Write a sequence for this structure.
């Protein structure tokens, strides 16, 4: 894994990767994994998910250590992409709160546990930002 400075001119990832789907893997902390994955999938609408997947492939959006999506670039995103990220993040926040209420962990801990799994499953070439870290291309 290499840390990179993100610039506005990046090569696009091959279009073949557009079919790649990020899948949540089981969380080893006993956080009700099946319910978490199922609820998270329901919270993500198909159109928002598709837009996010494309943005991830283009290096515009990445996974953060808190379990939420973030913008890799410092520039303002297109309004439809901002809306999609907000929608996905709102769904994730609800799932993290539900998980916290059911398991006795904090919503932050639930989000961080999911983030660990999401980051570990990221395809090569996509971006993530660990807690307190910088954007890094996997």
């Amino acid at each position: 894994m290499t840390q990179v400075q993100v610039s506005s001119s990046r090569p696009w990832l091959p279009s073949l990767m557009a079919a790649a789907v990020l899948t949540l893997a089981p969380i080893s902390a006993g956080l009700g994994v099946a319910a978490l994955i199922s609820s998270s999938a329901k919270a993500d609408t198909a159109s928002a998910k598709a837009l996010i997947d494309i943005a991830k492939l283009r290096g515009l959006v990445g996974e953060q250590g808190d379990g939420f999506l973030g913008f890799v670039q410092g520039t303002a995103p297109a309004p439809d992409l901002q809306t999609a990220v907000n929608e996905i993040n709102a769904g994730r926040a609800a799932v993290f709160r539900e998980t916290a209420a059911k398991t006795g962990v904090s919503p932050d801990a639930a989000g961080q546990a999911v983030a660990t799994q999401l980051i570990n499953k990221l395809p090569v070439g996509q971006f993530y930002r660990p807690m307190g870290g910088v954007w890094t291309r996997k």
